[in-house]
Amino acid sequence: MLSVVGLKTSKDHRTTIISDSGHSSPRLTSLSSRLSKPFGIILIAAVIVFLQIKEYSPVVAARQYLTNLFSPVVYVVSLPFNWATSVRDYFITKEEMVAQNEQLKLQNEKLIRDRDAHRQIAQENLNLREALNVQVGLVDDITTIRISHHIYDGYTTVFYSPNSALGDLRKNDAILTTKGFLVGRIMEINTNYTKIMPINDPSSRVPVKFEGNAQQAVLAGEGSDSLRLIHVENPVGVRVGDRLVTSGVGGILPAGLPVAVVQSIGNVIKCVPLGQVRDQDFVLALSRTQA
Predict the structure, then answer these.
(1) pTM of the model
(2) For residues 135 and 141, what is the distance between their CA atoms, to the nearest angstrom?
(3) Do 71 and 186 fall into the same domain?
(4) In terms of domains, do 176 and 281 share one?
(5) Domain shared by 247 and 155, yes or no
(6) Is residue 167 domain-shared with residue 276, that is, in the same domain?
(7) Which tens digits make up the pLDDT trace of 150-166?
(8) Residue range 87-116: average pLDDT?
(9) Which intervals hold domain Rod shape-determining protein MreC beta-barrel core (predicted)?
(10) CA 173 to CA 152: how far, in whole Å?
(11) Is 107 found in the same domain as 65?
(12) Residue-wise pLDDT tens digits, 175-205
């Protein structure tokens, strides 16, 4: 909008002033121009975020397309940086090397102290064995393990012991009570537990012999508290109360471990085990190297 103002000055001169009120000042125009771009970007970003939150399908599809399109490029561009990072792991500074050496020195000193302590304990155990006249090999091959629980599936019972770093347990190692009676053997060792099969399990077979003579037989589990004596060489010579020990036949179990006594004689020879796994909180695992 134009404004025209006429002024009369001295000597009959006239002066005309023209004002354009339709245009802003240059400074205001420049400020508006600078602010409009950021506000526009913010507005567009807000709209995109809103559509993304609402999972507007064209926006989601466009995002997936752009991600698939540029992901190989990002991967290729990042390869040198990843390689540089991996290479750096193979190099350490002098300070880091000194710190690692100090840590290794401390670990080495601890190992030396532990070694000396173990030597002292081993010497004390040796002196005690000599004083008690104990067979060294028998003690070395025995590991005490704890029975934690058992699972019965209606046919068989499996006992479980939590694994530990103590001892060198292996499959088919004999399981004894603290009194030395055979009650089972290790059937499986996994990450968490050692599984024990009792001698009264239906699938259990233990080669035995009579304690007073060399007559051979096999004790078969029946899933109950009693055992069945099968494959007896001379059934006529069996007597109630005869004691049965492992024969060592087959090489799985060592010979001479007490197992059961004859309970009754008839068409089937019944025996009662000298010990039961279910009655034990702790049992002994006997290594096969004792055989």
Answers:
(1) 0.50
(2) 11
(3) no
(4) yes
(5) yes
(6) yes
(7) 888 777 788 888 876 55
(8) 85
(9) 169-266
(10) 22
(11) no
(12) 998 888 999 999 888 878 888 999 999 999 9
Q: Are 129 and 142 in contact (CB under 8 A)?
A: no
Residues 179 and 276 in one domain: yes
The Cα 38–Cα 247 span in angstroms is 93
Six token digits for residue 95:
């300070």
Q: Which residues contact residue 279 at a Cβ distance below 8 angstroms, ignoring those fewer than 6 apart? A: none
Would residue 35 count as lying in a domain? no
Is residue 101 in some structural domain? yes
Query: Which structural domain, as residue segments, surrounds residue 128?
Result: 92-134
Higher pLDDT, 14 or 283: 283
Alpha helices in the chain (DSSP H): 26-53, 57-88, 94-132, 136-140
Identify the pLDDT of residue 290. Answer: 44
Q: What is the DSSP letter of 287?
A: P
Q: Hey, what long-range contacts does 241-244 have (CB within 8 A, 24 or more apart)?
A: 242/210, 242/211, 242/212, 243/210, 243/211, 243/212, 244/208, 244/209, 244/210, 244/211, 244/217, 244/219, 244/271
Count of structural domains within the chain: 3
Residue 33 falls within a domain, yes or no?
no
Look up residue 249 and give its amino acid. V
